[in-house]
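Hi all, posting the design record for the shared folder.

TITLE: backbone redesign
STEP: 1 of 1
STRUCTURE INPUT:
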C-alpha cells in the first residue's frame, strides 16, 4: 500500500550536501516506464486497458499477482490486486526507465537518499529499485532486460506514455528529489483562476515528464478527498497526434464505455486532451504531443515530446 497514507517520510536532505562532488554519476533516465494501479474488478479493468486503450495484456515481470498492459515494449500500466487497507488510494507507484538500476542505487545512496539493500530482479530479466520521494510516494527505477521482447498492440490508441502525474502537497519539497537530485528540468506550470495547480518537470534524458498535481493540506490524503478526485490526480498521459481524431476512432469502434469526458477539450496548456477512467477511477489522459494554442501561465521551457 502506498506509504503516503501514513505520516510523511522525513529525509535527511542535509546529508546530500556532505557527499563528495565526485561521487557516482547519475544513470540516464530515459523517461516513463509505467504506472502501477490497484483494481477491485480485474475483468472490468482488463476491458478498459485492453479494449478501450488497446494495450497488450502480458504477464507482470515484477509481481506474479499483477498484470501488465503494454502500449509498447518499454511502457505499460501495471495492475495489481486491491489491498484490503487501500482506502481511496488506487496508485501503488510510478516508474522510470533508467540505464542502470544498480547505478541508480549507488548514486542515490551516495547522495544520502534512503535506498533498498539491493536491486530486485524480474522474471523477464529486468532490474529495478524502489525508493520513496519526499512525500512518501513509491518511485521505481527500472532497467530493461538486455533483450526487450517485442509487444504487439496494433489497436493501441497511442504507443507513448508522455507523462505520469500524482498528488503532491509541497512543490519545493518534491523539487529536492526530482530537480536537485535527479536532474529533471522545468517544462510548464499553470492552473485556473490564477492558482498554480499543475507543475511539469521533464526527465533529464527524454521528453517525458512528471506532473505534480498540487492539492490541499500539508501531507497524506486529505480526509475529504474522494476516490474519484484522487484518481484524477494519479494518472498517465498517452501522447497522440490529434486527440479529436483519436476520440473519433474510439467512438467509431465502440470502444468507449462512458467513463470519459463527453468530448475532447482544449486545456489551459494549449493542448487537446481527453480524460478516460478505469473502473476504479484511475485516469488515462489522451494528450496532443504539441500545443494548438499558446499556453496560459508559463511558456513551455523544454522540447515537446513526439511519437
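Okay, here is what came back for every position:
SEQUENCE:
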Amino acid at each position: 500500500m502506498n506509504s503516503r497514507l501514513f505520516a510523511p517520510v522525513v529525509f535527511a536532505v542535509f546529508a546530500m550536501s556532505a557527499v563528495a562532488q565526485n561521487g557516482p554519476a547519475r544513470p540516464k533516465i530515459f523517461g516513463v516506464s509505467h504506472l502501477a494501479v490497484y483494481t477491485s474488478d480485474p475483468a472490468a479493468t482488463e476491458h478498459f486497458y485492453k479494449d478501450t486503450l488497446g494495450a497488450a495484456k502480458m504477464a507482470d515481470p515484477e509481481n506474479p499477482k499483477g498484470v501488465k498492459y503494454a502500449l509498447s515494449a518499454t511502457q505499460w500500466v501495471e495492475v495489481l490486486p486491491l489491498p484490503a487497507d487501500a482506502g481511496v488510494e488506487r496508485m501503488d507507484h510510478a516508474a522510470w526507465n533508467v540505464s542502470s538500476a544498480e547505478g541508480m542505487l549507488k548514486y542515490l545512496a551516495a547522495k544520502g537518499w534512503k535506498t533498498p539493500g539491493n536491486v530486485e530482479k524480474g522474471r523477464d530479466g529486468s532490474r529495478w529499485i524502489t525508493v520513496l520521494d519526499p512525500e512518501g510516494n513509491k518511485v521505481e527505477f527500472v532497467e530493461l532486460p538486455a533483450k526487450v521482447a517485442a509487444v504487439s498492440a496494433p489497436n493501441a490508441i497511442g504507443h507513448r506514455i508522455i507523462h505520469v502525474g500524482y498528488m503532491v502537497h509541497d512543490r519545493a519539497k518534491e523539487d529536492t528529489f526530482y530537480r536537485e537530485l535527479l536532474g529533471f528540468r522545468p517544462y510548464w506550470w499553470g492552473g485556473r483562476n490564477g492558482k498554480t495547480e499543475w507543475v511539469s518537470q521533464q526527465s533529464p534524458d527524454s521528453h517525458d515528464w512528471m506532473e505534480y498535481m498540487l492539492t490541499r493540506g500539508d501531507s497524506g490524503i486529505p480526509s475529504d478527498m474522494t476516490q474519484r478526485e484522487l484518481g484524477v490526480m494519479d494518472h498517465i498521459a498517452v501522447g497522440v497526434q490529434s486527440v479529436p481524431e483519436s476520440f473519433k476512432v474510439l467512438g467509431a469502434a465502440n470502444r468507449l464505455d462512458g467513463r470519459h469526458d463527453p468530448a475532447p477539450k482544449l486545456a489551459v496548456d494549449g493542448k487537446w486532451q481527453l480524460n478516460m477512467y478505469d473502473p476504479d477511477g484511475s485516469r488515462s489522459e489522451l494528450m496532443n504531443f504539441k500545443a494548438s494554442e499558446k499556453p496560459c501561465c508559463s511558456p513551455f521551457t523544454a522540447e515537446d515530446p513526439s511519437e
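COMMENT: Residues 95 and 140 are 4 Å apart (CA to CA).
Let me know if anyone wants the other runs.
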